[in-house]
Design goal:
Layout lengths: L12 H12 L3 H8 L4 E4 L7 H11 L6 E4 L15 H5 L16 E2 L4 H10 L7 E2 L17 H17 L14 H15 L1
Parallel strand pairs: 1-2, 3-4
């Protein structure tokens, strides 16, 4: 009798993707069997896929009789580098498809005002610069402030918020976004010190 630990037949998400890719790789018949059941594969946010996910998409969508594939993404919005996501998968996506593939740029931004779109194009240049939607408000140009360290950043954010409130802004309209909870801590500490 061989011992199997509890959950031995369960796979974590990342292990499931690896296992699936590893099953597709050496088995062309299995690949064709899976691909034949797909008419069109659509993958959104492709700038955030990792190498294993990108290879899996290519394994399923290349070769004779493979399904059509559409991927959508913006390399400037890649945020999952910590788990292997990379915009290079989006940028190099067409390589295995040779002349069968094409690239279409969606260049109208419907989310932001003109000042934000302009600042984004300056900060993250692209061969496909964005345009603000028709009749988008002008908005205020964002300001870039360099701070020596996180404590200085916390003081700067607290100062800005105090000024906004003094100028009559509603506190409910103010939000602080930080890349992580840890980085937001500097602002939090500054607020606590000022209220003490």
């Amino acid at each position: 009798h061989q011992y199997s630990p509890p959950n031995a037949h369960r796979l974590a998400y990342h292990a499931l993707i690896i296992s699936y890719r590893d099953r597709l790789r050496p088995r062309p018949a299995f690949r064709r069997s899976v691909s034949s059941r797909i008419d069109h594969l659509f993958v959104d946010e492709y700038q955030d896929v990792n190498a294993i996910q990108a290879e899996t998409v290519h394994l399923l969508t290349t070769g004779r009789g493979a399904p059509r594939v559409t991927v959508v993404g913006d390399a400037r919005q890649s945020i999952y580098g910590f788990r292997g996501g990379s915009p290079r998968h989006l940028e190099g996506f067409l390589a295995p498809y040779a002349k069968r593939g094409s690239r279409r740029a969606l260049t109208v931004c419907f989310r932001s005002d003109r000042a934000i779109v302009h600042a984004g194009n300056r900060a993250l240049p692209s061969e496909f610069p964005l345009r603000a939607r028709p009749r988008a408000p002008t908005g205020s140009a964002p300001q870039v402030v360099e701070c020596a360290d996180m404590r200085a950043e916390g003081r700067e954010v607290a100062d800005r918020i105090e000024q906004l409130l003094a100028d009559g802004a509603d506190a409910a309209d103010i939000i602080v976004l930080a890349r992580s909870r840890y980085l937001a801590g500097a602002y939090h500490e500054e607020v606590i010190q000022r209220r003490a």
